[in-house]
Amino acid sequence: MDTHPRSVTAMSVFIILNIIFWVAYGVIVVFNLHPALPDQPLIKGIMAILSFAAAGFLLWAFVFLKRHNRVAYYLALAFFCVAILFTIFDEVGWIDLIVLAINVIPLILLIKDRGWYLQPQHHATHE
């Protein structure tokens, strides 16, 4: 059985929250439900594709972080850093503060538990 710290479980919850956020945002863009989006269909299409791509990446990271994949760990760190920077350089409203929190907390948890994520995965042998 793979035991892990509670903070690793918390990290998984925050990744799932991020996946839900990105899928929801992509749906909002696709159905033109956001009042502040530009009217150009190309820009909306790009925004929707990037939203679904972010959700897909996070799903991939979710799976491979549990497997102690070093590449997934560093790419997840980079993803959260970039998401934080984009949020900070956007006009910050209350929803942006929530998005900032669901990106800062997992970044901190990834750094805190880097030893767990970067340790080699031990496979049980059945003889």
Structural features, described:
The protein is elongated, with a radius of gyration of 17 Å. The mean pLDDT is 91. The chain has one domain. The protein is mainly α and 127 residues long. It starts with 5 loop residues before the first helix and ends in a 9-residue tail after the last helix. Helix content is 74%, strand content 0%. It has helices at residues 6-30, 41-66, 70-88, 94-112, 114-118.
Strand residues, percent: under 5%
Span between N and C termini? 17 Å
Low-confidence stretches: none
Q: How many E-type strands?
A: 0
Q: Note the run of SSEs as H and E.
A: HHHHH
Shape: elongated
Characteristic key phrases:
127 residues, mainly alpha, 5 helices, 74% helix, elongated
What's the SSE blueprint?
Blueprint lengths: L5 H25 L10 H26 L3 H19 L5 H19 L1 H5 L9
Helix pairs in contact: 1-2, 1-4, 2-3, 3-4
